[in-house]
Amino acid sequence: MWKDSIQHIVDWLKDQLEESGTNGFVLGLSGGLDSTVCAALVRKATENCLGLILPIESDAKDLDDAANVADLLHIKTQYIDLTAVYNNLMKMLPGGDRVSLGNIKARLRMLVLYYHANLHNYLVCGTGNKTEISLGYFTKYGDGACDILPIGDLYKGEVRELARELNIPESIIKKTPSAGLWSGQTDENEIGFSYEQMDNALRKIEGDHVDDEATRKLSEVITTTAHKREKPKIFRMRR
């Protein structure tokens, strides 16, 4: 199953390049599962890939994992430490909570990704999966800003299965998912459910079976985060 799926995604990626008249892909390498899987897929589609490692007060282990992934996949990388840029920006802004500060980190990284996309005539590859996109678990105009989403229709559990077919190291597959926006942050603790629970609940919601606490709570999250998945609303003067 996943062997065929990989080929379908790779063919789709090639189509995106041809249709857009672009030369390749750029993506952020975080050392996590989703970015690693996306890197493996775009690398199969073209040799013109650039992985950016963009630390901002980041865990050294994540940076090592990102570099090791790039070596494994033979992807050209650039390491750009944005910590000083972030700290200088913080001096100009009033104090914020960790969520607003974390969102700034995500938006700074996307700014650099699009700079390199413009520079090379590349598409920005987003690394979001269906579970996170459905729940709005991304930064609007941060990691949620991209040109393509190769795993955007795959639940987190499916991304893990795909990763094994792609021969991604087990250490990456089993790594605790984290957006890395502050020390000790994990996706599951922040959302309040395990990815297995989220995947199961979202499948139920898709089938219109909102019949337990998890599906009810996550259904509410989908509703309140709908604005993050929509285009900006325009007031229409001409009906």
Please tag this protein with its features.
239 residues; alpha/beta; 4-stranded parallel beta sheet; 7% strand
Compose a concise summary of this entry:
The chain has 239 residues and is of the alpha/beta class. The protein contains twelve helices and four strands. It is globular, with a radius of gyration of 18 Å.
Overview of this protein structure:
It is a single chain. The chain is an alpha/beta fold. The protein has one domain (2-187): 3-Layer(aba) Sandwich (Rossmann fold), CATH 3.40.50. It contains 12 helices and 4 strands. It has helices at residues 2-20, 33-45, 60-73, 83-92, 98-120, 130-134, 156-165, 170-173, 187-191, 195-206, 213-224, 226-229, and strands at residues 24-28, 49-53, 76-79, 122-124. It has a 4-stranded parallel beta sheet, sandwiched between helices. α2 crosses α7 (156-165) and α10 (195-206) packs across α11. The longest helix has 23 residues, at 98-120. The radius of gyration is 18 Å and the shape is globular. The relative contact order is 0.14. The mean pLDDT is 96.
